[in-house]
Amino acid sequence: MLEHDFITLSNRELHVRVWNRSADKTLICWHILARNGADFEPLADALAKQGWRVLAPDTIDRGWSQWAKRPRKEYQFETYSALALGLLEHYRVDRLHWLGTSMGGLLGMVLKSGPLASRIERLILNDIGPAIPTAALRRIANYVRETPAFDTLSLHSKSAFEPSMRRSANATTPVGMPWRWRAVDAYRTGGS
């Protein structure tokens, strides 16, 4: 069963989707830069039924997590790493598996090659390439410029923001779309 937690890490409120809270095996699912943890809902639902605890946080400035006060300083892997380490401490995770899409995969590589070298049992990388096409970078830059008018979501009624967050979380794909079709939908030819 999916639960929603709001935890404070590094002086930022992070929204975390939690499945199967008391399970022994843990998978951390970290999303792409311009998305949020909702991307992992179909996968996490299935894994929770198989006995996995799944934690899918919304990185700062994404989903229902607090927005960065200093984006130029906070949009760095040092900040994301601190959030990830705090997440593991908060949920008392010792050994884990990591699934990262794009930015989440890069973060997993940073952590596996550093502070979590002995703790990450499996590192699963999705949608990580050696280069990002210029057109894709422009789309991402335009998307991440959108700024909400609130400090933290928990200070406000979630119901007021749910529809827009759900649209944002699923961009051009329907809610609950299977992973295979998300990948097909996201594939671009000609480097665009």
Give a verbal description of the structure.
With 192 residues, the chain is α/β, with parallel strands linked by helices. The chain has a single domain, classed as Alpha/Beta hydrolase fold, catalytic domain (Rossmann fold). 36% of the residues lie in helices and 21% in strands. The chain has 7 helices and 6 strands. A 6-stranded mixed sheet has the order 1-2-4-3-5-6. Strand 5, helix 4 (103-112) and strand 6 form a beta-alpha-beta unit. It starts with a strand and ends in a 6-residue tail after the last helix. The model is unreliable at 159-192 (pLDDT under 50).
Task: Give keywords.
192 residues, alpha/beta, 7 helices, 6 strands, 21% strand, 6-stranded mixed β-sheet, disordered C terminus, Rossmann fold, globular
